Amino acid sequence: MPVSNAQKKRKEDYRTVFNSPAGMRVLRDMMSTFHMGRSSHAPGDPYETSFREGERHAVLHILDMLGQRSDPEWLTESLDISTVEYAATVGYD
């Protein structure tokens, strides 16, 4: 199916926002916070599992728009640095 101009513009907008230094910090923080690289399963609580999976899905959508969802090396690197990135650049612990 051909990609419309609106779809192209949407992807371009995501890239503009999330490929900036601040956007990358936010995306990596979202990846760390919203169950990327770890299970979203909450034992014994299907509602919490569903909620967590919804959070994770939002991050997967962003990664799809950036074309990064299927790049395991990029994902691993991003998850590895996400927890220390704000502490180093913004001064948070």
Structural key phrases:
globular; 93 residues; mainly alpha
Description:
The chain has 93 residues and is mainly alpha-helical. The chain has one domain. The chain has four helices and no strands. The protein has helices at 5-18, 21-33, 46-66, 72-89. The radius of gyration is 15 Å and the shape is globular. The chain starts with a helix and ends with a helix. The mean pLDDT is 85.
What would a concise description of this structure say?
With 93 residues, the chain is mainly α. The protein has one domain. It has 4 helices and no strands.
Instruction: Describe the sheet with the most strands.
Output: none
Strand content: under 5%
Shape descriptor reads globular
Derived from helix and strand composition plus strand pairing, the structural class reads mainly alpha
Described by its quaternary structure, the protein is: single chain
List low-pLDDT spans: none
Overall tally of domains: 1
Q: What is the terminal-to-terminal distance?
A: 47 Å
Number of strand segments:
0
Helices and strands, in order, run as HHHH
Distinct helical segment count: 4
- Helix % is over 70%
**How many whole angstroms does the radius of gyration measure?**
15 Å
Mean pLDDT, as a whole number? 85
